[in-house]
Amino acid sequence: MRLPDRVTGLFLVGLGAAAAYGGWLLPPVPGQPVGPNVFPLVIGSGLALCGLAIAFGIGHTFEEEEEIIPVDGGATAPTGKLYGLRALLPPALLLFYVAAADLLGFIITAALIVYATSTALGARWKLSLPLSLLAPIGIHLIFSKLLRVPLPAGLLPMPW
Q1: pLDDT tens per residue across span 86-113
Q2: Reported pTM
């Protein structure tokens, strides 16, 4: 385990714990099952769990890492046809969501965004395809049913 990974992970644990504690201190809204205290509590807890995973190297093997800068001091930049365009992916996907969410709906738009992001990060289609199908439906259920946030239906209205 490298020290920067452990420090970053422990920092995220502390930040997540602070957010969760702040959410815990907020008073719930009477008559509402989900109030303003739930969001920071859930996000902070998730951030703390991700920080623990980073701090202890869960799911990552350090033997497989490649060295970007050679030992002789000559720096080599990563190459590839579309390597430089990957920095434009997040704003392009955000613009795509704004433009297409009302027409296509949340589920289809989010599925396309998850697939594009996961394949751009190097995931194979065997992982990207199920993730792009299941993640938007799960997010839709959480926000639409649990938190009562209206999401655009578009071409695929959810019967449930």
Answers
A1: 777 888 888 998 888 888 988 899 999 9
A2: 0.52
pLDDT digits (tens, 9 = 90+) for 19-46: 888 888 888 778 777 777 788 888 888 8
Tokens of 15: 């930040």
Q: Per-residue DSSP letters for the chain?
A: --HHHHHHHHHHHHHHHHHHHHHHHSPPPTT-SS-TTHHHHHHHHHHHHHHHHHHTTTT--GGG---SS-TTS-------TTTGGGGGHHHHHHHHHHHHHHHH-HHHHHHHHHHHHHHHTT--HHHHHHHHHHHHHHHHIIIIIIS------TTS----
Dihedral sign (CA 66, 69, 71, 72)? positive
